[in-house]
Amino acid sequence: MVTVISYLGTPVDSPLHPLWGAEGYWLILVGLASIVATFTAGCTWRTWTRILLGLSLPVLVAGTVTLQYYPHGSLVALALESVALIVAAPREARTWSAEPAPDPGHP
Q: Cα(64)–Cα(72) distance, rounded to whole angstroms?
């Protein structure tokens, strides 16, 4: 709804009018893609990280509602979610394989 109001509030002769409000659709796409990413993450990721990843769309909405400034509130929430996932990733990424990577310098 915010995207539609923002679009309608921009003068039609503005050079960026076609792009105004497009970030809303991209943020929705990011939220939907996170659901796909949740199912493809595999069991090497902890349950809480997969749940958080899958909840990206509600996190974006919560950021918008909490900070009441669109799209900055959404982006702040997405950034905080990303930090949490990045912090969790190194611990979990090390457990995906017990074998070390092959050394390209040795046959």
A: 8
Return all residues near 49 (Cβ < 8 A) that are at least 6 apart: 41, 84, 85, 88, 89, 92
Give Dmax over CA atoms of the chain in angstroms.
65
List per-residue pLDDT tens for the chain, 107 residues long.
Answer: 666 676 677 777 877 777 777 788 899 999 999 999 998 887 778 888 889 999 999 999 999 999 988 788 999 999 999 999 888 875 655 555 555 555 566 55
Distance CA 86, CA 43 (A): 17
Considering the entire predicted model, what is its pTM?
Answer: 0.67
Helix (H, G, I), strand (E, B) or coil at 106: coil
Cα gap 107→78, rounded to integer Å: 44
SS3 63: helix
What tokens were used for 9?
């509030």
